[in-house]
DNA sequence: CGGGATCCTTTCTGATACTG
DNA sequence: CAGTATCAGAAAGGATCCCG
């Protein structure tokens, strides 16, 4: 829930940390550009493929090729790269089975699972409100 | 809340729409790349500045210069552009006062407000779990 | 004050070819 | 099968100058 914000001089001129702190409620957040947790997370899930991969892994563990088939329009390069990033962030884990040919399975970690649980209301909002957005765009584009 | 997903053949080879439908619960979602509501929204809030602007406007209406000062490291160009995009999407409204010099005020619309309310749990998650992510990265970068 | 227009650099993404 | 390496185009972002 959002917290009541101070009025009057308010947040003006105090930098972003004050705002986030005010909105999130007293949490101290280092706001040195690269330290901002909000942007750090949003930049990742905002990527073109991250959420789609997490959704697939939420369903069940997947092998590399399975993911590739489940998300037909992803390139091999981006799949590899996104998986690496998510593994690096501790959102997914990678398990190699030394069979022949090799087999690699990806699965959601607890951290990744908690992220997608938190993310799902936002996805629901997107579905629910997409028509509003499209309509607003049409109006804006038509006359201004 | 997330829905139980079918096992067995599951989602493999059925395309992304099936997954989103399964996870979000029976909503029919056209998944032609540009039609996906989830990606459409995520691409926007994932931008470098969108969430920060929305947070500021959540606190109270802001004038252009106020926003610029509140977010010191944004360039004038990106501020203008992001505001236009959000206005186009119906998330914020723009009010011009024909004073001299001119004054323009931006404020959150109801739609924008509902978005940031939905978004705030995710921001809280980011704050709460950022240390986990940083730690995972350190481990990953150290050895693999 | 609130931008628009332009140029330039960085980052992202896709296509293609090759490998253990 | 599950990647790596390389290249090229597209897009995002920043710096600067200009205007009513």
TrEMBL record, chains A, B:
Origin: domain of life: Bacteria
Gene3D superfamilies: Winged helix-like DNA-binding domain superfamily/Winged helix DNA-binding domain
Organism field: Asticcacaulis machinosus
Record protein name field: Helix-turn-helix domain-containing protein
Statement: the UniProt record of this protein carries the keyword DNA-binding: yes
HTH hxlR-type domain mapped to chain residues: 36-134
The entry's keywords: DNA-binding, Transcription, Transcription regulation
InterPro entries: HTH_HxlR, WH-like_DNA-bd_sf, WH_DNA-bd_sf
Keyword DNA-binding: yes
């Amino acid at each position: 829930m959002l917290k009541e914000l101070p009025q009057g001089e308010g947040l003006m001129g105090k930098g972003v940390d004050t705002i986030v702190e005010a909105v999130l409620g007293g949490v101290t957040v280092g706001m040195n550009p690269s330290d901002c947790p909000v942007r750090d997370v949003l930049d990742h899930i905002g990527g073109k493929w991250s959420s789609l991969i997490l959704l697939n892994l939420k369903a069940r563990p997947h092998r590399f090729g399975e993911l590739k088939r489940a998300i037909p329009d992803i390139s091999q390069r981006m799949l590899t790269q996104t998986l690496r990033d998510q593994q690096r962030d501790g959102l997914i884990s990678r398990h190699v089975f030394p069979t022949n040919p090799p087999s690699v399975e990806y699965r959601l970690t607890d951290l990744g699972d908690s992220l997608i649980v938190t993310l799902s209301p936002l996805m629901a909002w997107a579905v629910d409100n997409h028509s509003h957005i499209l309509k607003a765009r049409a109006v804006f584009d038509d006359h201004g």
